[in-house]
Amino acid sequence: MKNNIENSIKESLENLDLPYSPSSWDAMRLHLDANSVDQSGSSVEQAIKSSLEKFETAYNPSAWSILESELIRIAFRNRVKSFLATFAFIAVTIGILYVVNDSDKLNNEQSSETKLSQGIVKTNSKGNITSKEQISNTSHHKQANQTEKVVATSTNNNSTIQHSIQNIESNAIIQTNEFYDNSAETELITTLDTKRSTTSDNELNSSNNLANEINELPFIMPIVPPICEGQSLTIKNRNSYPLFIKDPNDVIYELKGTVETGINTNVSGSYQIGLLKNGAFSEKGSFVIKDAPSADFDFINTNQLYQNGLPTTEIISHSIGIDFDWIIDVRPFTGRAVAPHFFTKGKHKVTLVVANSNGCKGRIDKDITIRKDYNLMATTAFDPKSLDVRNNTFMPRALIEREDLNFMLVIVDAKDGHVMFKTSDPSHGWDGVDRSTGSELDYMDTFIWKVTIENYEVGERPAYVGSAVIVPRQR
Q1: Within this chain, do residues 350 and 428 fall inside the same structural domain, yes or no?
Q2: 353-367 burial code (b ≥16 CB/10 A, e <16)
């Protein structure tokens, strides 16, 4: 501003044009003359004064315009400075009031802590007892918040004023203390801290958001048919979100949304269907897998025994059940104990299915090994001259012991193949005489026998063939 005024004055002086006055020279001459006669300089000064009194500077309108603009700028700057100073004063005043207000609240909280240490019990607006440690932690937390607020005030006045006013309104605390005659004192504190309570609720419920969203969706219970232990089970989850199954041993399986999942049914009992919330299982429904009997059986003997002329193996089951169904070499049997006939040597498969009162079934398979083929219990030699009636004729033993058996026994000469004897009477065995010639066979002669059976057993072949020899008379 100063430079502008000096420039304006300089410009005015440079444009100065003094009018010519002849009297000025006369005055100067007189002054010089006065000096020469040793007179004082007062006459010269009078002459200069007289000349200057007659001096008149030439009028320049632009100088006044410049001066006026500079004065306007000066006035504007002074107003801005005044406004900023006023605003800063107001901001500092509000900040001081806010700090004082928080200090009062801190003092009140410290006073409350002192009362608590002396036996005062605090309860919040919900009636829950607040411990001394909780109040202490809250005080330290608020002190830290106050420190942050003071720093924010010194950094940004406008932001501090706005947040301070909001915090003063939202953190207002109403404390009511009631004292009774006895030593028990209760202090009711109602805190209107909307932002803090909202944040706390969000943190507590954040892990439940997914489960809450699922709870809002419709729940469709999977269809589970009646099932027994050990049976194959596939469950389709018709919901778009996953479900979970917990078995009686608390093992949890996941059922993915809209797909079918195979379930292990080796454990009987109640199975729960539900959701997982924060790792905890929440039941929505249940189904039951029924007990199945444990099937088992034992072979009484594995050696070849004969009952009524048939090879017999006794098998018995001690399983708990009401129905026992067997499959032995594709032959069906029923009952807890069975006596199947194995007519050929080798391995034979035995299957047992046991059913209980639940309608559930258990199954087991075992193999048994037979060491020799069944051949009608026929002997390989006999002596027609023996006095023992059991040994002086040839008739396979099974044909005698088996009841109501329709058969035909044929004896053939091993030398030429002609038929020497035949019968269907089990009591009429061959005595060693060739019926076609009437002669007896010699000792050590070999013959061939053949039996055909009309009513043979299941699993039995209809014809048997063997050979035997006539041996010397036993002495």
Answers
A1: no
A2: bbbbeeebbbeeeee
Query: Within this chain, do residues 348 and 392 fall inside the same structural domain, yes or no?
Result: no
CA 8 to chain centre: 87
**Coil, helix or strand at residue 299:** strand
Tell which residue, 231, 191, 473, 459, has the closest CA to residue 350.
Answer: 459
φ and ψ at residue 260, rounded to 5 degrees? -95, 140
Range 177-205 burial, b when 16+ CB lie within 10 A, else e: eeeeeeeebebebebeeeeeeeeeeeeee
Containing structural domain, residue 29: 2-60
Contact of 406 with 425, CB cutoff 8 Å = no
d(CA 186, CA 177): 7
318-347: per-residue pLDDT in tens? 999 999 999 998 899 999 999 999 999 999
Residue from 8, 10, 23, 127 nearest 69 by CA: 8
> Within a 10 A sphere around the Cβ of 164, how many other Cβ atoms?
21
Nearest Cα residue to 315 out of 290, 291, 289, 296: 296
Q: Which of 266, 290, 314 delimits the end of a domain?
A: 290
- Orientation angle between helical segments 132-155 and 157-170, nearest 10 degrees: 150
387, 461: one domain: yes
**Residue 82: inside a domain, yes or no?**
no
Task: Specify if 205 maps to a domain.
Answer: no
Tell me whether strands 310-312 and 305-307 are parallel, antiparallel or unpaired: antiparallel
**Is residue 66 one of the residues assigned to a domain?**
no
> pLDDT by residue (tens digit) across 202-217?
544 544 555 555 556 7
CATH number, position 261: 2.60.40
